[in-house]
Design brief:
A hairpin with a 3-residue loop joins strand 6 and strand 7. The longest helix is centred in the N-terminal third of the chain and has 15 residues. It is globular, with a radius of gyration of 21 Å. It is 27% helix and 14% strand. A six-stranded mixed beta sheet has the order 3-2-1-4-9-5. The protein has a three-stranded antiparallel beta sheet with strand order 7-6-8. Helix 2 runs antiparallel to helix 7. The N terminus is likely disordered. It is an alpha/beta fold and 310 residues long.
Length: 310
């Protein structure tokens, strides 16, 4: 009797000590997008949906927490607002995303871009701590500063690569990207100096005496997921300072630059100014004018796919 009671008590005690499942927040930066797609996550166990809406009329979505927000600073302002106002009560895992429906592909100038890489789903972001990692980034673009030349991951331009998937960088290394391209009216070049911004607000003392060119890999569209501990790699005052910078204009220059620096913001010990994240094609003096300006680029990619190059 006593043995049975003790054994039963042990089982109950061990069960009560089991670690709870991680809590996930989906944080959406909304303006005028249709958010019907997010209903599939409302009510899911251990998942909360928070929509910060900058729309002129208050958005309503049953089951989601909808919070009105002044229209400043693009999606980066929204993300920073959430971090600053929830710093001491962050979820175990937070997904940050624009509110447009997540779907494959990217086309310059299309506000309906879904920004998903080939063979990547939004569930890949919602799933906490994949393979033990404390952040989830799929880098599908990279820019070199101060020139603001850019390239894109092939998996966001063309579908069908057998080696594509939810990895941070292309499995094909330097061959997993488009050619370097340039647009004189690219948002990264509107005004100001990206390197000054990076040195002051991201790298701090690590680059203050340097002016070396810098390649930053980033998630096109500003979608990524990070753990609470990863956010806490920087103090609350750090995010509050950046929020002030993003709170002055509807479309500040810093809002476009922020898209390119989120990895470095959350990984101060692994700055891209110190160590490149991915392998890139060699950047020469001659680049194409935009990723689609030379139709031969896409035609060559499709031909290589048909021919079994990848």
């Amino acid at each position: 009797m006593i043995g049975q009671f003790v054994a039963g008590l042990s089982v109950v005690s061990l069960g009560s000590l089991a670690a709870p499942s991680p809590r996930t927040d989906i944080v959406l930066a909304h303006y005028n997008e249709d958010v019907a797609w997010v209903r599939q996550y409302i009510g899911r166990q251990n998942v909360d949906v928070r929509i910060y809406s900058k729309a002129e009329q208050l958005l309503e979505l049953e089951g989601a927490t909808v919070l009105p927000l002044a229209n400043f600073g693009r999606e980066s302002h929204t993300y920073l607002h959430h971090i600053v106002h929830n710093y001491d009560n962050l979820a175990d895992w937070t997904v940050f995303s624009q509110a447009c429906s997540p779907s494959w592909g990217y086309l310059i100038g299309d506000s309906g871009n879904g920004h998903l890489n080939d063979k990547v789903s939004f569930d890949d972001y919602v799933r906490p701590f994949p393979n033990g990692r404390d952040s989830f980034f799929v880098m599908n673009a990279a820019s070199q500063f101060p020139r603001a030349t850019q390239l894109n991951r092939l998996g966001i331009i063309v579908q069908g690569f057998p080696d594509e998937g939810p990895e941070m960088c292309p499995k094909l290394g330097a061959e997993g990207w488009t050619k370097w391209w340039f647009l004189p009216d690219h948002p990264h070049l509107k005004r100001g100096d990206m390197l000054d911004f990076y040195d002051k607000y991201v790298a701090a003392s690590h680059r203050l005496a340097e002016r070396k060119p810098l390649i930053l890999a980033f998630a096109q569209g500003g979608r990524f997921a990070v753990s609470r501990a990863r956010i806490h790699a920087r103090p609350k005052t750090y995010y509050a300072r950046m929020l002030v910078v993003l709170s002055k204009e509807v479309n500040p220059q810093e809002g476009f630059w922020m898209e390119a620096v989120w990895w470095d913001v959350f990984h101060p010990e692994a700055l891209q100014s110190k160590t490149p994240l991915c392998e890139y094609p060699v950047l020469g003096e001659h680049v194409t004018r935009g990723p689609y300006a030379d139709t031969g680029i896409l035609n060559a990619i499709r031909a290589q796919l048909r021919g079994g190059r990848w």
